[in-house]
UniProtKB/TrEMBL annotation:
<dbReference type="Pfam" id="PF00924">
    <property type="entry name" value="MS_channel_2nd"/>
</dbReference>
<feature type="transmembrane region" description="Helical">
    <location>
        <begin position="62"/>
        <end position="80"/>
    </location>
</feature>
<feature type="domain" description="Mechanosensitive ion channel MscS">
    <location>
        <begin position="108"/>
        <end position="174"/>
    </location>
</feature>
<keyword id="KW-1003">Cell membrane</keyword>
<keyword id="KW-0812">Transmembrane</keyword>
<dbReference type="Pfam" id="PF21088">
    <property type="entry name" value="MS_channel_1st"/>
</dbReference>
<dbReference type="InterPro" id="IPR006685">
    <property type="entry name" value="MscS_channel_2nd"/>
</dbReference>
<dbReference type="InterPro" id="IPR011014">
    <property type="entry name" value="MscS_channel_TM-2"/>
</dbReference>
<comment type="similarity">
    <text>Belongs to the MscS (TC 1.A.23) family.</text>
</comment>
<keyword id="KW-0472">Membrane</keyword>
<feature type="transmembrane region" description="Helical">
    <location>
        <begin position="12"/>
        <end position="42"/>
    </location>
</feature>
<feature type="domain" description="Mechanosensitive ion channel transmembrane helices 2/3">
    <location>
        <begin position="65"/>
        <end position="106"/>
    </location>
</feature>
<dbReference type="InterPro" id="IPR023408">
    <property type="entry name" value="MscS_beta-dom_sf"/>
</dbReference>
<dbReference type="InterPro" id="IPR049142">
    <property type="entry name" value="MS_channel_1st"/>
</dbReference>
<dbReference type="InterPro" id="IPR049278">
    <property type="entry name" value="MS_channel_C"/>
</dbReference>
<dbReference type="Pfam" id="PF21082">
    <property type="entry name" value="MS_channel_3rd"/>
</dbReference>
<feature type="domain" description="Mechanosensitive ion channel MscS C-terminal">
    <location>
        <begin position="182"/>
        <end position="264"/>
    </location>
</feature>
């Protein structure tokens, strides 16, 4: 027993008043292992099926992230205390330094605060589909400083959290994943309006990703200079792949227009040359 005590008290490093012994290393390892095990248990608990039924995956993830940062901050403070560094004294003594660092890292702190807001408010969650600066992104991870998303070209994008909280962002998944989309098309004057409407509806309903229950709607938008402008409206759950779905529907529309002799016009101008 005495030999174990001597082993634990053996000094590995001595700097001024700070002494790091074998016992100090053991305490640090125990703190890290305890924090890691505790987080593992919390994560398993939050992700259990009965819990996920109350919270969706994005909400459970946000709660876990907040708890994770909180636990690691406490663990880091305990590690400093184990080494002999008083956290309260350290914070008080470095207040002026923190102000200087804060000014230099203002944007970083802004991103971190934005990350805390995102995780606590849960306005943005994992698997949400956002429209940021004209780009459609599917959120894969929400970190404390940055979030990671995947765009339609399968490119991973790192997004500073402040960009999400301070800019105008459209969350296509916020209320429901069942959204209405539009396709605009113009036809030549003299076309049968009822036939055009029927062709547009049938073209949309041929696509398996278009909701068949809510149906589709066709509106005559305007009498333009060169065309009758129609708008095809339909519902779909495939938000992330909607541009590909629109492309498929447009191909069907083009084929059916050709079969029914419906013409898509192009602007034309008559030029009159006056002779003296």
């Amino acid at each position: 027993m005495e030999s174990i005590q001597k082993f634990l008290e053996f000094e590995l490093l001595h700097i001024g008043t700070y002494v790091i012994s074998v016992f100090t290393i053991v305490r640090i390892v125990i703190i890290i292992l305890t924090a890691a095990i505790l987080l593992w248990v919390i994560k398993k608990t939050l992700m259990r099926k009965q819990v996920v039924k109350k919270f969706d995956t994005g909400t459970a993830y946000a709660i876990y992230q907040i708890i994770k940062y909180f636990i690691w901050v406490i663990a880091f403070g305990l590690i400093l205390e184990s080494i002999g560094i008083r956290v309260t004294v350290l914070i008080a003594g470095s207040a002026a330094l923190l102000v200087g660092v804060g000014l230099g890292l203002q944007q970083t702190f802004n991103d971190v605060i934005s990350g805390v807001i995102l995780l606590s408010e849960r306005s943005i969650k994992i698997d949400d589909i956002l429209e940021i600066d004209g780009d459609i992104v599917k959120i894969q991870d929400i970190g404390l400083r940055t979030s990671k998303g995947l765009n339609r070209d399968q490119i991973s994008i790192i997004i500073p959290n402040s960009l999400i909280t301070t800019n105008k962002v459209i969350n296509w998944s916020h209320q429901t994943r069942h959204n209405r989309f539009r396709i605009n098309v113009g036809v030549a004057y003299g076309s049968d309006v009822d036939l055009v409407s029927e062709v547009l509806k049938s073209s949309a309903l041929e696509n398996k990703n278009v909701d068949q229950i809510d149906g589709v709607e066709v509106q005559l938008l305007d009498f333009a200079d060169s065309s009758l402008n129609f708008q095809l409206l339909f519902y779909s759950d495939e938000i992330f792949r909607i541009e590909r779905i629109k492309s498929d529907i447009r191909k069907v529309i083009a084929r059916k227009f050709k079969e029914n002799n419906i013409v898509i016009p192009f602007p034309q101008r008559d030029l009159h040359i006056k002779k003296d």
